[in-house]
């Protein structure tokens, strides 16, 4: 590989006798892995239906499984199992940071730099639907990718935001129990996986990233409650962005204890490389934010309940009907218990979005996110074979019993893929166009 000379010179100084093995690691193919989404399926059950050969478990994440060298893993993002949200394709060493949060039930957790959502959805698996998960991404386009992955993997307790760390810290100060700072970095651990990162690298960019990371960590400190934990991670090897960044933070924030610091290097582990540091805040307050009050619009609620009785096999609780962008409150959400009341403009995705009134105001139309959060016994559904599932994922219709009428979830092996609407023996496709393959 055509690696930058300044990068090689620095790595040789860093690694000494280990530099030769480090350099040799670039002759190998990148390590590949999937992380099983245990919000939907167990690891054992996934192994039985995996669309790709599987190898050993990733040592630092029991849900992570290596794809063996030489296995045909092309098209992993276009399988039926992927569309059903049963797994996330993730670089194995990138899975090391989230377990260090040591998440327990009912906590408030922030993933401050969350897109595309690998670590954020990994956090959701540890939370198991309890507590409040805030996923933030400052770039709007990337936040939409984040939202799509949250939706696909069936995460119910997440709020997706699109704000700067400075804006967030003005609202959430002293609030979170755990914060992940997977900081934007110079990406040295991505050179094999994404060769386009090589020409973008420079010592100047390393310095710019380090300055940006310093500001992000400063704001993370403001948002962390007393006794809370920050896990800081990067996919780079630069000391300025890793060890020295942590040293600088500890000098400026005396109330923290360094619990551990580790660096995964590609010649020492099966992965492309990652840095991780665990910081514990010794003292301080845990502030409450007033819970968001639901607004109930009777017309919307009536339409929803009529649809619910025809489609779902349960009566949803904590249902609210509100959206300040819609006259008369056109959208329906299920708020989770600790959803905070913050300025409306901060929300990109607020609670579990069930759907909303059609433009003419006469009918309720369910959201794709709701479909992806349901279990097959909770909703009327059409179970289909793989060929029909692929047809559905391409946006096509398929035949169904003429006696069926109304909204149905399409399931494959019992796992939801999205909505269709049965009319006259035809299941009309309602999969969002942007998700079709």
Task: Give an account of the 3D structure.
By secondary structure, the chain is an alpha+beta fold. It is built from 13 helices and 21 strands. The chain is globular and about 75 Å long. It starts with a helix and ends in an 8-residue tail after the last strand.
Topology:
Elements: H1 5-15, H2 19-24, E1 32-36, H3 43-49, E2 57-58, E3 61-67, H4 80-83, E4 87-89, E5 108-111, H5 118-127, E6 132-136, H6 140-152, E7 158-161, H7 165-169, E8 176-182, H8 197-200, H9 203-223, E9 224-234, H10 243-252, E10 256-264, E11 274-281, H11 298-311, E12 319-321, E13 331-334, E14 347-349, E15 352-357, E16 364-366, H12 368-373, E17 381-383, H13 386-393, E18 398-399, E19 406-412, E20 415-423, E21 426-429
Parallel strand pairs: 5-6, 5-8, 6-7, 8-9, 17-19
Antiparallel strand pairs: 1-3, 1-4, 2-3, 7-14, 9-11, 10-11, 12-13, 13-15, 15-16, 18-21, 19-20, 20-21
Calculate the mean pLDDT score and round it: 94
Q: What composes the largest sheet?
A: 8 strands, mixed
Outline type: globular
Low-confidence stretches: none
| Oligomeric state of the chains in view | single chain
Structural class: alpha+beta
Strand content: 15-25%
The largest sheet has its strands arranged as: 10-11-9-8-5-6-7-14
Supply the number of helical segments: 13
Count of DSSP strands: 21
Distance between the termini: 33 Å
Our Rg estimate from Cα atoms comes to 23 Å
* Fraction of residues in H or I helices: 25-40%
């Amino acid at each position: 590989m055509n690696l930058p000379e300044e990068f090689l010179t620095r790595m040789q100084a860093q690694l000494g006798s280990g530099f030769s093995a480090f350099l040799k690691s670039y002759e190998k193919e990148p390590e590949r892995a999937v992380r099983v989404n245990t919000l939907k399926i167990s690891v054992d059950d996934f192994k039985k239906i995996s669309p790709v050969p599987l190898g050993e478990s990733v040592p630092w994440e029991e849900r992570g499984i290596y794809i063996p060298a030489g296995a045909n893993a092309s098209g992993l993002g276009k399988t039926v199992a992927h569309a059903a949200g049963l797994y996330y394709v993730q670089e194995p060493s990138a899975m090391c940071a989230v377990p260090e949060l040591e998440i327990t039930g009912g906590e408030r957790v922030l993933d401050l730099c969350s897109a595309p959502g690998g670590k954020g959805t990994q956090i959701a698996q540890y939370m198991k639907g309890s507590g409040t998960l805030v996923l933030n991404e400052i770039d709007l386009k990337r936040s939409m990718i984040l939202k799509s992955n949250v939706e696909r993997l069936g995460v119910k307790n997440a709020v997706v935001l699109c704000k700067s760390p400075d804006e967030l810290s003005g609202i959430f100060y002293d609030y979170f129990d755990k914060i992940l700072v997977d900081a934007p970095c110079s990406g040295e651990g991505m050179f094999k996986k994404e060769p386009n990162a090589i020409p973008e690298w420079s010592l100047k960019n390393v310095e710019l990233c380090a300055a940006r990371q310093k500001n992000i960590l400063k704001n993370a400190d403001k948002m962390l409650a007393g006794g809370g934990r920050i896990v800081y991670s990067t996919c780079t090897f630069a000391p300025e962005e890793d060890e020295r960044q942590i040293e600088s933070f500890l000098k400026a924030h005396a109330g923290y204890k360094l619990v551990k610091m580790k660096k995964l290097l590609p010649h020492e582990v099966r992965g492309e490389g990652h840095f991780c540091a665990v910081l514990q805040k010794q003292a301080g307050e845990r502030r409450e934010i007033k819970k968001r009050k639901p607004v109930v619009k009777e017309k919307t609620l009536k339409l929803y309940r009529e649809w619910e009785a025809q489609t779902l096999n349960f009566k949803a609780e904590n249902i609210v009907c509100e959206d300040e962008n819609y006259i008369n409150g056109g959208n329906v959400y299920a708020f989770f218990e600790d959803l905070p009341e913050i300025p409306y403009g901060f929300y990109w995705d607020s609670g579990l979005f069930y759907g909303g009134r059609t433009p003419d105001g006469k009918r309720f139309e369910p959201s794709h996110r709701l479909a992806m959060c349901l279990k097959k016994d909770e909703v009327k559904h059409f179970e289909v074979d793989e060929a029909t599932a692929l047809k559905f994922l391409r946006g096509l219709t398929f035949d169904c019993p003429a006696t069926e009428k109304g909204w149905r979830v399409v399931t494959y092996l019992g796992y939801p893929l999205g909505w269709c609407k049965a009319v006259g023996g035809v299941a009309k496709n309602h999969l969002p166009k942007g998700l079709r393959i």
